[in-house]
User: Fold this.
Amino acid sequence: MNDAAAQAQSLSALLAFQHTLQHCKSRRELQFAIVNDSHRLLQHDQALLIEPGLRGSQQLSAVSGLGEIDLTTPFAQWIGRVARWLEQRNEAQVVLSPTSLPEDLAADGSDWMPAHALACRLAGPGHQPGGWLWLGRSTPWQPNDLALAQWLAENAGFALWGWRSSQPRLRHIVRGLKARPTLALIIGVIVLLGFVPVPLTVLAPAEVTPVHPTAITAPTDGVVERVLVQPNQLIKAGEVLVSLDNTVTRNRLQVARKTLEISLADLKRATSKAFADDQSKSEVQMLDARAHEKAAEVDYLVELLDRLKVKSPINGVAIFADPLDWLGKPVQTGERIMLVADPEAVELTLYVPADDAIELDIDTPVRMFLNVSPLGSIAARVTQTSYEAVPNGENTLAYVLKARIDEHTLPRLGLKGTAKLYSHKVSLAYYLFRKPLAWLRRASGL
Assistant:
């Protein structure tokens, strides 16, 4: 009675497994069921599914207990070599142990080879080869286990063959196109359009910038007291742009002048005594040197006091954001406050995203569409390219390019827009699929 109940339970498990294989909704679900649900039939520790790959190779497609596998791991490479060795033996079922493998496979797989392994060939109708089912455990395989494993492999192989045969093949597609000549004509036209040459282009943020701007910097450490010009204001050479707080410098100048007066008085007194006092003669040279030192300090402070009023060295337009950003702000020597540039000498600065970079040479055509005038465009040509990408302030990298404007009417400094750069000609298919292919390559590592 117990034997009958065990047989009934085993038969029920076989039918349940077969039902599971027949009702899988995807090939991936079928692969998962073969290596995991088979544990109820054969008490294995590990199950591997090995299927034919490209060019007749054998590769790992599913592992029990794992949702995703990495074919670049040493284990996946080793099991593929084992599968190729099994193909050479031309047997339907092979019982394996660590000592039954060739020396090179046994040595490389010493960490992965189970104590008792069983490899069953997966075959479809007509004994078409379909890969291997690899089962491993710590206890030996019994005769009834071998028969059950063979049944399991035959059903799994037939199910996998069914999914492969259900996938569209080229001859089915050709037969369908012959039945629908209009559709075939449309597809043919689309394919031919894919070979039409078009210029390879890329879009990049751009702005109008000065060609040779002059930097207005802080002449010394200090605090900005006033900004005397407005952004984009026309200015003349010598005009005061920024004034720094002069309180400390002015006080130092007053002290230096007073000290100079004292030094000159001491020098005059020692000179008058020198005619009758030999000691005063020796002091004259020292007091004269001190007076010259104080006079030089006064001249330096006078010059520094004048430099605290920062002036424009050229005619042009002031380029900066907002005067209020600088009021009361401490600055260091050499810190840039603004730019002064000739409004008639402008160019385009382009920021080509690193992910969208294409081959761009000197004299490459450019069309810029300003944000203030989206219906019009500005013609330009690339004059300078950068060899490395730099941060562009938006947490991305970009190549910075310069372009010469070919228009007679120049745009105003500071205007921004989008530039379209034209490279060599490519096929329309490459133009459309360049970015998807680049993304696929980065994602897959191929």
